[in-house]
Amino acid sequence: MSALNCTDCQGYSKCILNNPVILDTEDFFSYSEVRFCPFQIMFLLSHKELLETGEWPPEYKDSESSRRINPEGRFVKPMIALAELTSRLETTGRCGELLITQIEDGRSFHTLSDGAREALFYCSGYRRRQLTFAQWLTDKKRRKRKTPRP
Question: What is the pLDDT of residues 95-141, one digit of tens each?
Fold first, then answer.
């Protein structure tokens, strides 16, 4: 179970404001908690090899104590999460590859390069973005220019 309350998440910025230390700690998320916030994306990428084998990371404890027959294989949920993330990362091109490389090297949220961080934020969110990565970057820069300065 994660220290973050991801089932009621309204945005990752609240996680940063409530607990900025959480960014540098290893957190754990169950499949039901995955909403593709930046921290969960980093979690999924750091366990990419394990997810590719169809296993969820070993810290995962099933909350159900009774035995029940599951209509799908245990490998389905890890593969769904990884496929969705891979699909999102493919649209970011080189920045997505850079993000994967930096996560595999063990970088934390604060030490990601600008391109990797942009890919991370583009891939985050409950749904996929309608804009392409290039359009999203342009729109983001445009919005930044329009914000009034105090």
Answer: 999 999 999 999 988 899 999 999 999 999 888 999 999 999 998 87
DSSP output for 76-110? HHHHHHHHHHHHHHHTTTHHHHHHHHHHHTT--GG
Q: Which residues contact 134 (CB under 8 A, 6 or more apart)?
A: none
| b/e sequence 116-146, b meaning 16+ C-beta within 10 Å | bbbbbebbbbeeeeeeebeebbeeeeeeeee
Residue 125 contacts residue 36 (beta carbons within 8 Å) = yes
Closest CA to 122 of 14, 130, 80: 130
Alpha helices in the chain (DSSP H): 12-18, 38-46, 48-52, 76-90, 94-104, 114-123, 133-146
Distance CA 59, CA 49 (A): 15
CA–CA dist 34, 7 (Å, integer):
8
Residues in Cβ contact with 1 at an 8 Å cutoff, skipping those fewer than 6 apart: 28, 30
